[in-house]
Structure of Cell division ATP-binding protein FtsE:
Amino acid sequence: MSEAVLELKNASIFQRESLILSDVSVSIDKGEFVYLIGKTGTGKSSFMKTLYGDLPLKKGEGHIVGYDLPTLKEKDIPFLRRKLGVVFQDFKLLNDRTVSDNLHFVLTATGWTDKAEMKSKIDDVLDKVDMKTKAFKYPYQLSGGEQQRVAIARALLNDPELILADEPTGNLDPQTSVEVMQVLQEINKNGNTILMATHDYALLLKYPSKTLKCDENQIFEVVQKTV
C-alpha cells in the first residue's frame, strides 16, 4: 500500500475571491516524481502556493505531509514548510551571505542549534548537489545553474517529505536546465518525492514521468504517449 504525501479531493483553489481551479482531485505517493504543466496563467503557481500555505484552501479536502489544508492555522505554516522543500524559479538566495551561510541561516531559523550537526548537514546537502567546493562563495559569484543547485540543497536541509519545485529551470538555458534536472532526478532516486511545475516540455520528453496538467480551471493527469 503506497502512502500519499499529498492528496486533494474536490478542492477549489482561490486567489482572493477569484476561482482559479475547481474540482481538483490529485494524489502523489511517497517516492514519486510528478510534473505540473500548463500555460502561464492556468493556475500552476496558485496550486503550489496553496500547498505550502501561502493561499488558504477554502473548499474541498486536502492534506499534505500530515497537515490538513482546510484547517491549517497560521502558526502551523512554518512547521508545514519544514516538512516541505520549496525550490523557486528565482533562487531566493541571500546575496550578502556565502553559500554555507545561506544554508546555516535556514537551519538556525528552523531550530537547529548544534554547530557540528549543522556543519555536517550543510556538507551533506551540498555534496548531494555537487556544490561542496563552492560553499565559501557568494551567490553573485555563481552561475544561474549553480545558484539553483544551492537552492535545491537548501530545500533538502530538513529532510523534507515532499519537494515543491516551482519552475526550477525557468531562468536557465537548456543545457543548465538538463544539469539541474539531473540533480533532481538523482535526489528522487534517493527517495525524495518531487512535484515540479514546469513549462519546459523538452524536459518531459527527456525524463518522462507522471504528469498533471492545469487547463481550463482543472487539473488532470496526462497520459504520455510512449515513442
